[in-house]
Amino acid sequence: MPHALVLLGFLAATVTLSLAAHMTIGSIVILLASSGGIGSAVLVAVSVSKGSGRRLLQRLLKAALSSGTGS
Fold first, then answer.
1. What stretch of H or E contains 36?
2. Distance (Å, rounded) from C-alpha 51 to C-alpha 27?
C-alpha cells in the first residue's frame, strides 16, 4: 500500500506541474527523480550517523551491487 501512495503522489505531482507550471513530462520526470534521489541520500546519511545505520548502508550497497545476478 505505501508503494501505491508514493506512485499516486508522483502522478499527482506530474499532473499538477504539467498544468500549472507548463513543464514538459521529460522535465518533470527528471525533477522528481532527482528529488527522490536526494531524499534517499538524506535518509541514508541520517541513518548512518546513528548507531545501526552502518549495517543498513552495507546491506543497501550489497543489494545494489548484486542486483540482477539472481542471488
1. helix 25-49
2. 38
Cell output for 20? 500549472
Contact 14, 27 (CB under 8 A): no
The vertex-11 CA angle with 7 and 13, nearest 5°, equals 115
Helical packing angle, 53-65 and 25-49, nearest 10°: 140
pTM over 0.85: no
Integer Cα distance of 3 and 5 in angstroms: 5
19-58: per-residue pLDDT in tens? 888 888 888 888 888 888 877 777 777 777 666 667 777 7
